[in-house]
Hints:
Elements: E1 3-8, H1 17-30, E2 33-39, E3 54-58, H2 66-84, E4 88-91, H3 97-105, E5 109-114, H4 118-123, H5 130-150, E6 153-156, H6 159-162, E7 170-172, E8 196-200, H7 209-218, E9 225-229, H8 237-242, E10 250-252, H9 258-265, E11 270-273, H10 279-283, H11 287-294, E12 299-302, H12 305-314, E13 317-320, H13 325-337, H14 339-355, H15 359-374
Parallel strand pairs: 1-2, 1-4, 2-3, 4-5, 5-6, 6-7, 8-9, 8-11, 9-10, 11-12, 12-13
Helix pairs in contact: 1-15, 2-3, 3-5, 7-13, 11-14
Amino acid sequence: xxxxxxxxxxxxxxxxxxxxxxxxxxxxxxxxxxxxxxxxxxxxxxxxxxxxxxxxxxxxxxxxxxxxxxxxxxxxxxxxxxxxxxxxxxxxxxxxxxxxxxxxxxxxxxxxxxxxxxxxxxxxxxxxxxxxxxxxxxxxxxxxxxxxxxxxxxxxxxxxxxxxxxxxxxxxxxxxxxxxxxxxxxxxxxxxxxxxxxxxxxxxxxxxxxxxxxxxxxxxxxxxxxxxxxxxxxxxxxxxxxxxxxxxxxxxxxxxxxxxxxxxxxxxxxxxxxxxxxxxxxxxxxxxxxxxxxxxxxxxxxxxxxxxxxxxxxxxxxxxxxxxxxxxxxxxxxxxxxxxxxxxxxxxxxxxxxxxxxxxxxxxxxxxxxxxxxxxxxxxxxxxxxxxx
Length: 389
């Protein structure tokens, strides 16, 4: 009898890159098992939306408000998963911890996928006062510590996150890019491209939206443009940025799907990520930075120790103080004024992804984890990355 694996989330969309594109498809390709993605978006469970052997099961509209999502939405998810009777459930939201524990008590093997350093992330929530954030951060840390004792395994998105959990049941599966989405490095003369720089992802205060806009106003290159591909968080933050002097040099694309991201990155000279120095950001590994590298682009990145090790180690870009628009502008101008050196940085970044920072390595670790949990056959070398589309 084929084993059944459920990936569940009440927060993430059904096309989430880490969950749907990478984890679900890797498991479906690499294991002799039925894989289903349980979401909560009210869009339905249409068979046509299944991809690469992954079924999509919609558990109804997303509950309004955090409390409703954490309780009524989570309970609805629990009932749907129980009806499907999976052998393993991997959940992706900290608010589903209590559901994960209930599923574990019912005999299902449960894996907690920790995308973010939740206690540190809470400390940077703009809608929480500092005292309240500290209390909630401590509570979150205690809850995760208790959950770690009972779940079957833990998958952490970064080594820093992994260090918070028991080593004997935790593996790190970084959110590195699939090279099949970015098939080649820069294949045109960088000097012939428009002097555009790309930022892909959520646009918020703690991700340096204002600093990037202010840097544009200080750039000396007359034709510089920043391609913004993402959504504002909160939506009102867009009004804040539009009022800043550098906004006239922004080309706002809005939300971009995977194909749009690849298209945008193939047309610019550089990728930028200016996360601000919050506790969670300093130790994170932003997917966008590795996607820039996979696209053969030089990167302009925040000068955090963890990021410095990656960027300087690969020789693939420039590091600046993310709170200094003048320094950011200087880095932008340097990249645009030195196309040959920038192209060499991009080539080195692409090579680093091919050798170290690609999803194929992470997928194999995930498959090995499931082999240990389930005891099901796994392809000897795991699926070829080109097949995971």
